[in-house]
Amino acid sequence: MFLGSIFLTFILLLAACIALLLKQKAKHNNLMLSNNIIRAERDLLHARLEIQDHALSVIYDQIHDNIGQMLTGIQMKLVTLGFDAGSKRNTGNLSMLASDMGRSIKDLRNLSHATDSLMIEKEGLLDAIEKEIHFSSSIYHLECIFTCAHELPEMSDRKEVLLFRLIQEMMIYMFSRTKGREMIIRLEYIDDLFTASIAENNRRHAVSAQSADNNEALQHIKEKAMLLHGRLYITNQTGGDVMTFISNLKDEPTT
Amino acid sequence: MSQQPKINIAIADDHTIMRSGLAELIKNLGDYDVTIQAGNGNELLQQLDNADKLPELCILDINMPELNGYETTEALKKSYPEIKVMALSMFDNEFSIVKMLRCGATGFLHKGANPDELSEAIQTVLSGNYFHTELKLFGALKKNNAWQTINITERETEFLKHCCSDLSYKEIASLMGVSLHTVHGYRDILFQKLRLKSRTALAIYALKTGVVTD
After folding, report:
1. How many angstroms away from the CA of B104 is the closest CA of chain A?
2. B21 with A127: Cβ contact below 8 A
3. Partner A contacted by B153 (CB < 8 A)
4. Cβ A112–B18 below 8 Å, yes or no?
5. How many whole angstroms separate alpha carbon A127 and alpha carbon B130?
6. How confident is the model at residue A167 (pLDDT cuts 50, 70, 90)?
7. Are A218 and A173 in contact (CB under 8 A)?
8. Is the interface score ipTM higher than 0.85?
9. pLDDT tens digit string along A174-232?
10. pTM
11. Which of A69, A103, A118, A160 to mutate to test the interface with B (most CBs of B within 10 A)?
């Protein structure tokens, strides 16, 4: 009987060990599966970014080769017609049309700056952001104040382009939704932490920030934030929203 | 009463609508005649070789097939050094413009510039001066001889020389052994001292004052 109870205890112990091992293995498999899913998601994001970049490059070429050239040719024809218009009124009207066309060509030129990744790499992050702010503020009729209080860390061209695209989309999101007239765009790099914030009406961050995880409209921005190993926050306040991106920027964007 | 002969101008641009529109606009300015129109640099050089009378000014698109704006400008400076060259571009890509200036162009104009600006650009380049919209401010500075008293340090001069290349600011920082932040500082100080706003204008200042020679 004594031997029987020992044997039974041994069997129970063995069963417990096997159960524990199986549980560990299942946990390990789940972890592997989660990692594979995350890796696949990041690969997909990266592929989508490359497609987006390629599409923007095509847009840049089209603006340069076709649309811009055609509009410029038409503008010149309008000016030339104005010289032979016959009446002062017609000359004035044609001149005004040519002038409006010139403004559109200028907007097209400014728009194209932000589509060409090679140019963003060449210009550098800060200059590219300044140009983008200048263009977007004229489109949305906003007063913008841009500050970069600290020297930013050295970044690869790829990281700079991705960071530019993130900040560009943050600006488009905030500028298109603001009810205010003034936006503050601030870049900071303190204690190895990079922060990009876009605030309405000169408001600063709220202490308790809520994650942007649940807002579907921010999907593209969240994806880029993820690739840059950062997080995105939006604080909603009466009179002003603040969108903030925070990352240590140490790691290269995920491939 | 004899009329003053018109000044001959050549245009090279691979976009036909653009080229013909510009030619018509220039003719309507009154004092000019567009005697050569070419679709690329090679065509332009061939037409120049066969021309009875050479133009005084060539207006070149930067991006052209077969022989682009840079190569064409260099070829013109070699074979026809008396002909002035003005660059024309859809985009105001500073690196391209500076490269054209280093090749020998003395003016830059956006496609879509208004007739007054076009006329001013042509007159300025034909008179032997550099043209860029921003340089009107510099012109005012030079009139008062104020530019001669501008004090530029050795490091700022070194940075100015690098501005006349197609190196990015990051590459310049690496060459000068300083941070990008420092290079931006040099740039901003020069913008302030010279009352200029772009790298193109800095490059023209450097070429005009002999800090950099062709």
Report:
1. 23
2. no
3. no
4. no
5. 25
6. very high
7. yes
8. no
9. 998 887 889 999 999 988 899 999 988 755 444 334 445 446 568 888 888 888 889 88
10. 0.78
11. A69
